[in-house]
Amino acid sequence: MKNIKKYVNEYVSPYGYMVLVIFLSRSFYSGIGFSNILLNSKKDTWLSLLIGFVIGFIPILSIRLLNNRNINLLKAIHSKIIKFIIILVLIFSFTTLLNDFINFCNVKYLFETPSVFIAILIIISSIYIVNKGIETIGRSALFMSFISIFLYIFISISLIKYIDIDNLKPILKIDSIYIIKSIILYISYTITPIILLNIIPKNDLITEEYNKCLIIGYIISFISIFIIFFFITTIYNYEYISLFNYPAYFALKKIDYNFISNVENIYSLFFIIDYFYSITTYIYIIKYYLKNEFNISNYYVLLIILVYISTYLFKNINIVHFITNKLLHSVLLTFILFFILIAPLKKDS
Fold it and tell me: pTM for the full model?
């Protein structure tokens, strides 16, 4: 029975993989992503997203190439330095995302709760699922995807009546340099998590199914991000919505049911699901790396350090501004370019 349990938890299913592609590629768009992209391309963000989506297929096809060759990024690279750099990128993404999630909870729900308590609650929940194995992460994510779809449909139906297309006018008035910067931001926020998903174990016998789910997940992710942006910028004008750190959440405040108050807090579960499964998957990859590279099963000490960084180092406004507005997308874009270059060079495992 133990052997059966071990086998079941060894791989993520294709559909579980697809859902993780969707959740992780959307994870930065609850707060940091939309705020920074809107700041640059403003009312022409729709154009940045479309171009970024098309260009994003280049690294997506590189991921598909690795999947076809049954190559796991960490196992295929023999240089410990390069492996360590990859994990540093993951840790950097993890701490930034965790801080964004903590701030989201702090501002929208738990106003007077210390950030460290929120972080501990999130991490303990994630650790519980991580210790069950990657198959459990994928299966539970697949289940939560139905709740996410349900919420998304209800949110969209509730917001349609507030759309004002005039808020998008005038179009094509932003300098091309800002459009390009937003394209870079979209690719950085969306593609990096998908690349890191290459590290999780998959069943090599059904590679083509994973590749189909990769493409479908990427397309679904874009459509959902684009529709969210559309609601944000047509319900409110850019000048107003740009004042908020979480514009997607603020758009939910427009929804008003007479029989229930603060419905935006219920619908924001849509964003929390993305946050939670992204954080959980990052923790799993950290555990996977320590176990396979150093035979270290205890990853809790590292998590404690990362929680400390996310809750205390990020308290400095100047540090937060530098990381989220300048450093983050530079690191992620460099990683993506590096990945595109090395992916074709790796031979079949």
Answer: 0.89
